[in-house]
């Protein structure tokens, strides 16, 4: 009975995600929640049966393509997330598995779309963005908002195309980081749901002030940077793209670690949570992320928080 009710709830959330645009951001995060609850409370078998029932209903209501995609999201995210929580895995481990599941589902969705419809949604989206710069300039020109200067148009279009090329080049690391953030949000929200249902022993996410990476990350970053300097000797465009993505991944890791270190110091100095978060947000908006990355690199290599802060400087959980 519980499985049937939660399967019906999955269908309701899926319909909201499909037909109510202004609620999609919330519903798409909560879509795996019924499967998570089933996996935690009843185990793998009931969770799989419940998601299968939800998938069959969705096939009848929204069609085969949308039904399959939505079912993949429900089962592929909800069941691994729920099993990680049921087995008391650390939050970081469960979030990493959920991130991997997101990436696999994204690849499966692209593959299914190519087989069913015959076009690649990634290349279609990239092509649409390539033409958006010129179309926007032409629209603003007709409205009289920009000067009708061909050289200005060429400059803007060239800059826009370079931006798109950079985004396409760094798309792999952007997807990994984006799905990691989405997995963190999904875990935090589903943990809150489980706690409301009486599951108080769900592993918590570490307090943000305690977020760190192993010291060997510094040496791995140095090795990647050294290889990047001599990448011309490696040959091939794929090697350059891979190294760019690896270095960008390290950069964002150290930005997050630097932000956590800065937050820990600010909290230790008596600054409130909201004020500390506002200071960090202001630093990012002022394009000071490179300084946060430097702080994260130094903190990881030299252990600034271990040396100069008392243990467990942050008391609150992230989320």
Describe this structure in words.
This protein has helices at residues 2-19, 24-30, 33-42, 44-62, 64-86, 91-117, 121-142, 150-169, 171-196, 216-229, 237-268, 273-285, 289-302, 304-308. α1 (2-19) runs antiparallel to α2. Mean pLDDT is 81; it is low at 313-319. It has 319 residues and is mainly alpha-helical. The protein starts with a helix and ends in an 11-residue tail after the last helix. The chain contains 14 helices and no strands.
Number of strands: 0
Bin the strand percentage.
Answer: under 5%
Q: What would the average pLDDT be, to the nearest integer?
A: 81
> How are helices and strands ordered from N to C?
HHHHHHHHHHHHHH
Distance between the termini: 32 Å
Counting helices, strands and paired strands, the structural category is mainly alpha
Determine the number of helices (DSSP H or I, runs of at least 4 residues): 14
- CA-based shape: globular
Q: Helix share of residues?
A: over 70%
Rg, Å, rounded: 23 Å
Low-confidence stretches: 313-319
Specify the biggest β-sheet. none
What's the layout of helices and strands?
Layout: H1 2-19, H2 24-30, H3 33-42, H4 44-62, H5 64-86, H6 91-117, H7 121-142, H8 150-169, H9 171-196, H10 216-229, H11 237-268, H12 273-285, H13 289-302, H14 304-308
Helix pairs in contact: 1-2, 1-3, 1-4, 3-4, 3-5, 4-5, 5-6, 6-9, 7-8, 9-11, 10-11, 11-12, 11-13
């Amino acid at each position: 009975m519980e499985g049937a009710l939660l399967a019906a709830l999955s269908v309701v959330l899926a319909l909201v995600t499909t037909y109510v645009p202004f609620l999609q951001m919330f519903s798409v995060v909560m879509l795996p929640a019924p499967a998570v609850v089933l996996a935690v409370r009843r185990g793998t078998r009931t969770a799989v049966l419940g998601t299968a029932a939800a998938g069959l209903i969705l096939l009848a209501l929204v069609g085969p393509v949308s039904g399959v995609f939505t079912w993949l999201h429900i089962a592929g995210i909800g069941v691994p997330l729920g099993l990680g929580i049921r087995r008391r895995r650390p939050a970081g481990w469960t979030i990493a598995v959920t991130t991997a599941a997101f990436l696999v589902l994204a690849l499966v969705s692209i593959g299914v779309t190519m087989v069913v419809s015959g076009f690649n949604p990634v290349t279609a989206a990239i092509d649409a963005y390539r033409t958006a710069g010129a179309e926007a300039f032409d629209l603003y020109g007709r409205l009289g908002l920009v000067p009708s200067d061909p050289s200005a148009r060429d400059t803007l279009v060239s800059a826009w195309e370079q931006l798109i090329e950079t985004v396409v080049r760094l798309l792999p690391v952007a997807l990994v980081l984006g799905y990691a953030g989405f997995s963190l949000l999904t875990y935090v929200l589903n943990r809150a749901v489980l706690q409301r249902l009486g599951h108080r022993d769900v592993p918590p996410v570490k307090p943000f002030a305690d977020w760190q990476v192993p010291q060997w990350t510094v040496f791995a970053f140095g090795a990647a940077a050294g290889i990047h300097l001599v990448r011309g000797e490696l040959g091939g465009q794929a090697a350059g793209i891979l190294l760019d993505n690896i270095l960008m991944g390290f950069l964002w890791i150290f930005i997050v670690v630097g932000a956590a270190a800065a937050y820990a110091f600010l909290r230790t100095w008596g600054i409130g949570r909201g004020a500390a978060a506002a200071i960090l947000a202001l630093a990012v908006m002022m394009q000071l992320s490179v300084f946060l990355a430097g702080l994260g690199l130094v903190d990881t290599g030299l252990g600034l928080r271990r040396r100069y802060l008392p243990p467990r400087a942050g008391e609150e959980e992230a989320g």
